[in-house]
Amino acid sequence: MPATPRRATLATVAASAGVSVATVSKVLNGRSDVSPATRSLVQAVLRQHDYVAPAPRRESPGAATVELQFDADLNAYSMEIVQGAVAAGAESGVGIVVSVRGGAERTTAWARALVAAGRRALIAVTSEMTARQPAALARARLPLVLIDPLNLPRTRVTSVGSTNFAGGLAATHHLLSLGHRRVAYVGGPATAGCNQARLHGYRAAMEAEGALVLPGYVRSGHFRYRSGLAGGAAVLDLPRPPTAIFAGSDEMAIGIMEAARARGLRIPEDLSIVGFDDTQIARLTSPPLTTVRQPLREMGGVALRTALRLAAGERVDSHHVELATELVVRGSTALVPESRA
C-alpha cells in the first residue's frame, strides 16, 4: 500500500510563496491587511499544495462527528443504514451528519470542507469513487469507509457490504424450487460490484439447475422504483415472458409489481417476485414481498465503528467486511402455475 501523502504545512506554503508564515495565516483567516496581489499568490500556492487546515480542537469527545454521505435522494434502504449508524454513534458518543452529494462534486475542496467542519471520518454509501477522491481524503488525513460501493478504486479502500452472491443464489434457488424455469433478473447498474455479485449468484443457480437464461431476461438500471417499473415492463412484454423475477432491490420489486398489475397479472398466482434488502416496504406491499435480507442496520453500525477505529489510528483486521444475507419468504412467491409452466 503506498505511503499516505504528507500534508502540506503553513511553513511549506510560505516558503513556496516567498512570504512569511504569518502572511499565509492572515490569508487563511480572511484578514484584510494583506494586499490583493499577495492574497492571490498565497491562495494559488495553497491550491497547488492541496493545503488542508488542521481540524479544530475538540473540547470533548461528544463534539466529534462523522459524515454519512449518500449520492442520491434518501429512500427506505438509506434510512436503514442511517438508523444503524446513528445507534452505533450514540453508543460511541459520536454525532452523525447525513448529507447527499454527487460523486462528481467530490474534489479536494470537498475534502478540505469536511476537515474544516471537524469531521472525524467519512462514510460514503453506494457511491462511485474515482482514484482521486480517496487520495484527496488521504491528504486530508480523513478516514474513508464505503458501504455497498458501486466500484472500488485501485487504491486500497475500506468497505462494508453483504454476501451479495450468496443472496442472489438463495433468491434464485427459491424460485427454481417452486418449479419456475423462466426466471428473469432485473437489477441495478451493470458495473456496480454488488449488482454483479447478485447477478452472478442468479446465473450460478440457473446453470446448476439446467435452466436457460433466455434473451432479454437480464436487465440493468438503478436500484429504484422507476427502473423496476421499466425493467419489469420490458421482460413481461417479451414473447416468452418469465413466470418469476428476481429484483436487485425491494424498491425495484415494487416497480415490477406495478408493471405486472398493469398487464393484468396477479402476484403470486401469475408471477412470483423476489426482492433484495428487506427494508420496511417489503413488509408493507400487497402481498408482502419475499426478499433477501441484507443486514443494513448492522452494516451502518459496522461502518461507523470501523471509521472511528481508523480515525484513532488503529489497524483494521480486514479492508472489506461482508455480513451474511438471509432469504425471507413471504407472500409474493408461489408454485409456478401449470398453465404457465
Furnish the topology, listing elements before pairings.
Layout: H1 10-17, H2 21-28, H3 36-48, E1 65-70, H4 76-92, E2 95-100, H5 108-116, E3 119-125, H6 132-139, E4 144-147, E5 158-162, H7 164-177, E6 183-187, H8 193-208, E7 218-220, H9 225-236, E8 244-247, H10 250-262, E9 272-277, H11 280-284, E10 290-293, H12 296-311, E11 320-323, E12 326-328
Helix pairs in contact: 1-2, 1-3, 4-12, 7-8, 9-10
Walk me through the structure.
- It is a single chain.
- The chain is of the alpha/beta class.
- The strands form two sheets. Strands 2-1-3-4-5-11 form a six-stranded parallel β-sheet, with helices on both faces. A six-stranded mixed β-sheet has the order 7-6-8-9-10-12, with helices on both faces.
- The chain is elongated and about 85 Å long.
- The protein has twelve helices and twelve strands.
- Strand 1, helix 4 and strand 2 (95-100) form a beta-alpha-beta unit.
- Helix 1 (10-17) crosses helix 3 (36-48) and helix 7 packs parallel to helix 8.
